[in-house]
Amino acid sequence: MKQVLWFRRDLRINDSAILANAKDEVLPIFIFDKNILDKFSKDDKRVTFIYKSVLQLKEDLKEIGLDLAIFYSTPIEIFETLKNQGFDSILCSIDFDNYAKKRDEEINKIIPMQTFTDSFITHPNNCLKKDNTPYKVFTPYYKSLEFIWESESLVLFERNKNLKKIEFDYDFIPTLEDMGFNEQKLPEFLEKSADELINEFSLKISEYQEGRDFFYKNATSNLAVHLRFGLISPRELFNKIKKMRAIKSQKDFYIRELFWREFYNYILFHFPKSEFENLNDIKVNWNKDETIFQKWCEGNTGVPLIDAAMRYFNLTGTMHNRLRMIVSSYLTKNLLIDWKKGEEYFASKLLDYEASSNIGSWQWAASTGADAVPYFRVFNPYLQSAKFDKEAVFIKSVIPELKDVNAKLIHSENGVQSNIFLDYPKQLVSIEYSRNRAIEEFKRANNEKY
Ligand SMILES: Cc1cc2nc3c(=O)[nH]c(=O)nc-3n(C[C@H](O)[C@H](O)[C@H](O)COP(=O)(O)OP(=O)(O)OC[C@H]3O[C@@H](n4cnc5c(N)ncnc54)[C@H](O)[C@@H]3O)c2cc1C
């Protein structure tokens, strides 16, 4: 048997389903997939992060007597070549998004694939209601998994220590430039390993629940990118959280967040149409004004908090969870622009971009999703900044022209614009008018559904 171990979004050797289930002679590989990379801009930060992580995986595999063959091609081309070289089985971690599903169907026809649930704690098929249909609401879904989140630890995969490295050309390593990319500066937290971030988080978990919404603080774990590319498995993270010295309610609160990640993966698996359509089937008359959308993307809406969040995002590829909630509410409600446009914009830049979490969260914000915020609840960005960034620390750090402006002015509608010495964009829409317009439109769309 000649097995290919195809690493994709599980770039680690600890708690690895494929290294546990592999046998005999193996060829670990990673493919820089041209189908995916060709769509990215050459300054995409994620490629720099993945590139570094793949090189680290190669070193880690060498330490356990294996190696990593790296390709820059399309999966179909690679597996057709490997089939001709006598490889007869592929082991990999399951991936649920649309491109991945189609890709895997094709590859399976070339060499049979064995897939494992390795990027999530649960397989979406293992949790259904009594009538065998999937949950659509988070809380009952989460409660039904109590036997998992109440356990003290989850079983991890043990690596098969008898694997043998197949002779192969392991020397080829394309450079980022060979693949059309320039090395990018990454946010500081991405220079750290998952273990370093977990250690740092262990010092602040006691204040997680209270602190996590204050976006000027660094109160969250910053682990989403590492989880996305499988540098830490969610099971191992779960176990490490359970072992931290903190009161149970704080640890439980964090673990509940990990299950939002599970839930959105579950929703995308059971309702794949949610990638393209409003999951609750309502038909909203979205505003198609491209200029307004571009102003949101650039951070030129005239609302200081929205502008700071978007400008920071454009610079760093990251955005705090509460800010994501506020800018997505503003785009889909106040500007009445289709959530799919915001989802796509986030997908083009977000370092922790995960199709399921992004789609699910955007549908949540737009009140079109499975377990969505009620449509009459619209975030007021001024009240949000007053509550979660009282001194406007975050806003001032991103928008230097507001450095000397009184925070109270920043938190009031048209406050900044009232200062004639400041060159700041006018508001695109009045908050109250646009809120009422959104509520009316969503009321109509919901009524028409029935
Ligand atoms: C519009 C919008 C889009 C989003 N897009 C993504 C995305 O593409 N990828 C992504 O990983 N998260 C997404 N999120 C969820 C959340 O914003 C990020 O997971 C979080 O900001 C990452 O920071 P952290 O690791 O410090 O989070 P922590 O607060 O430390 O949370 C720990 C982990 O729990 C998970 N998590 C926390 N909150 C959520 C949530 N609401 N939904 C799903 N998982 C969650 C993440 O894996 C996170 O790393 C989105 C949220 C919104 C509102």
UniProtKB/TrEMBL annotation:
Keywords: Chromophore, FAD, Flavoprotein, Lyase
Alphabetized PROSITE patterns for the sequence: PHR_CRY_ALPHA_BETA (PS51645)
UniProt key word Cytoplasm: no
Record-annotated Photolyase/cryptochrome alpha/beta domain positions: 1-128
Entry note: cofactor: Binds 1 FAD per subunit.
GO BP of this protein: response to light stimulus
Residues binding FAD, per UniProt: 208, 254, 257-264
Cofactor(s) the protein requires to work: FAD; (6R)-5,10-methylene-5,6,7,8-tetrahydrofolate
UniProt-listed Gene3D superfamilies: 1.25.40.80, DNA Cyclobutane Dipyrimidine Photolyase, subunit A, domain 3, HUPs
Site (Electron transfer via tryptophanyl radical): 286, 339, 362
A molecular-function term among this protein's GO annotations: FAD binding
Enzyme Commission designation: 4.1.99.3
Protein family per UniProt: Belongs to the DNA photolyase family.
Protein name from the UniProt record: Deoxyribodipyrimidine photolyase
Species of origin: Arcobacter aquimarinus
